[in-house]
Amino acid sequence: MSYRYALVPYIRAPEKYPNVVLFYDEYVSIIKDAFPKGKVHLLILPRNEETSKQKSQEAFKDEKTRKMLEAYVHQAIELTQKAFDKEWRRIDGDDEKKMKILVCCHSVPSLNNLHIHVLTTDMCGRNMKNKKHYNSFTTDFAIRFDEFPLKEDDFRLQDKGKCESLLKQDLVYNGANYKSSFKKMQAKIHEDFDKIYKHI
Amino acid sequence: MSYRYALVPYIRAPEKYPNVVLFYDEYVSIIKDAFPKGKVHLLILPRNEETSKQKSQEAFKDEKTRKMLEAYVHQAIELTQKAFDKEWRRIDGDDEKKMKILVCCHSVPSLNNLHIHVLTTDMCGRNMKNKKHYNSFTTDFAIRFDEFPLKEDDFRLQDKGKCESLLKQDLVYNGANYKSSFKKMQAKIHEDFDKIYKHI
DNA sequence: TATTCCGATAGTGAC
DNA sequence: GTCACTATCGGAATGAG
Asked: Is the CB of B1 under 7 A from strand C?
């Protein structure tokens, strides 16, 4: 079971991992996701033990916790934007158009410590490898930070089975249904990305 | 679609393929199966065009056709027995015990030319690679030559769907159910074979 | 839904 | 059920004295 606690070191001793931890204070650590699903993919980890062991659906019922995190979310968004812009430029030169950034929590996390994903929405990360990865960020399986607190009747509060079924649904990109053909969809996604961005 | 006619050359011009054709006359060719599912695996191919294009269920309703083939079946069995004995010896030295030989047709063939399988029942052929291969020789999907002509109510005369479903059933070997674990079953089959036979 | 490894399953293309 | 190739799907292990 210990893989479920892979994030513990960054909460307990962020100072030990300068290559992974971009920022930390007494409340949070902001780290680079070891298996990025977007070109840039960070995680915000609340360091408070009680908060960390809760699911996002529960932890973010508390307004204080949400408010406390807002500033860190904005900070992480800025870090993500800067990291992306440092690596990628639009071919059309229109620097006003910014890569969209997603801030969310998975409705059924696999790691036991609360973590907020902050990632560019290109879906071109090195470790975007399968249908579950893709659907975990493109369906309601992902709970956007601005959706918290969830309404009482939100299925994601109770219905783990329905959440998990979202990961198995057909792959949809740009209005097209790719059924289960992850590789074909990924090829199209990368093709489109390469039409818009060039690496610096 | 032309792969469905892979056997045509051995019917039309058996004299051209001495490395594959073990015997031929005006009625049949007996060839080595290119993808053997037993240690020895031959095919009897009736050369008559009308016969060849029928399914076994139809062709062997005709008694003359069956009778014509009987002698060739016995010949093919002898060839198979000799070829096996030339390569493999029982470790216990009991030469009276003979490897069993199966003579059958597939109820749903993939190749369009009528072919009778004659093979040792060791299930250890070089090309025994998956569940469908195995079930195609160990279930009623295989119609033994001595079952022809089929009774009128035999499902294999009409129900292609039921025939094909037999290929997907659980793997059974020596009374044990291996579900879909082909590799595990195959390991056991080879282990058992190696306990009884040694290569010459 | 952490990854990774292995194996079973499924679709395709073959001329 | 022809094969061979690719890719998808599905389970299990992952720790460690």
From this structure: yes
